[in-house]
Amino acid sequence: MPAKIIGAGLVLTCNPNFDILTNAGVVMQKGTIIELGDMAYLCKTYPNAPVFFDKKALLLPAFINPHVHFEFSGQRCFEYGSFEGWLSSVLKKRTGVLEKSQISMQKAINAQLLSGVGSVGAISSYGLDRYCLRDSPLRVVFFDELIGGQATSSNFKAFSQRHTLTNQLKSARFIPAIAIHAPYSVHKDLAKQVLHTFKSSVISTHFLESQAELEWLESQQGWFNYFYREILKVVPSPSFSSPFEFLDLFKNQRLLLVHALFANRQHLKHAKRISAQTTLITCPRSNRLLSGKILKTGLAKQLNMPIAIATDGESSNYNINFLEELRIALWSFQKPLLDLLPEVLLDATLHASKALGLNTGSLEKGKDADLALFALSGQIEPTLPYILNWLLHARRVKDLWVQGERVVIAGA
């Protein structure tokens, strides 16, 4: 396969130094970046390579949305304002939402692509999104999610059947993985059986999204006691005696801790100590809508724990436009904007890639060629204020490549 040169007037490498280049580009071959540099140098070095260069555009790694629920994309009816009210409404109304899932899931996939997302961490509760994601242009880490308050053979069998189907579809761009839903919804013996039986390169779990969850784990009291008795109509049967016991499930694993709004220093230090790698996944809009809080990123920074930004699903958000999520992150996290901007963009690229175990997220030699191109306006300047202005006004990607394949074309 011949080499191709893709370049732009402004390039964000999203490498650890957050290097900004002008009139630069990448050479890609067989879906991999083989060189990064000045356009004049690249064209001279690869004289026979086809060239795609857009002077009035920004080139950067395709975004990565590490936590999104596609199956609930058709919702417009859940209750916001408290986690407890939201969870109750999900259980009451989920059947009607799932009935319309195929059309809404395809719309959600398109929303990801148009907002510059090349890779997703898809959390699948039922497997309804398995084939549409497999057939999509996206690079997908597909998390079969374990839910089951009882360690029964039927719960294990149901999960095993779903995960076996997923494993049969494994490819370079469709990567099977496992998610453990949450401490309040999974029996520890069932979780241990699944994690012992199936290997997963990365594991995702919702962790301490609400005060009610923390109270349930620490004292086996509070709203979840009511939830089991009055909503699920079962006798409460606490499985974990503390947040630490739940975290111990993930020893030596690459772990995504999603939300962690009510996690304290001891919880995060324990997760970091026992896991192979822990990344906090924060979903600013979802967190504000459900729990009324935004993650305090300072604690994670103190512990040198990486953060990645995600949208969650439309069941807990008003859309899953990734550009909108990044803009809300700029409003939410308390730090000077020009200091925060590189962090937010790295959380959406390099850090998210490392969290999912992908070889993407930055424009560097040897990385998979997942690229996003956005139109620019005005006089191009290689400065943070100019890039901030772009992010505030960006509405859709102009061109998108995944594994070197052009999957979104300008005007299409």
From TrEMBL:
Tagged with keyword Hydrolase: yes
Domain Amidohydrolase-related, first and last residues per copy: 59-407
Keyword check for Repeat: no
Family matches, as InterPro entries: Amidohydro-rel, Metal-dep_hydrolase_composite, Metal_Hydrolase, MTA/SAH_deaminase
Top-level taxon of origin: Bacteria
Pfam families, sorted: Amidohydro_1
GO molecular function annotation: hydrolase activity, acting on carbon-nitrogen (but not peptide) bonds
Keywords: Hydrolase
NCBIfam families found in the cross-reference section: PRK08418.1
Identification of the protein by name: Chlorohydrolase
Organism: Helicobacter suis HS5
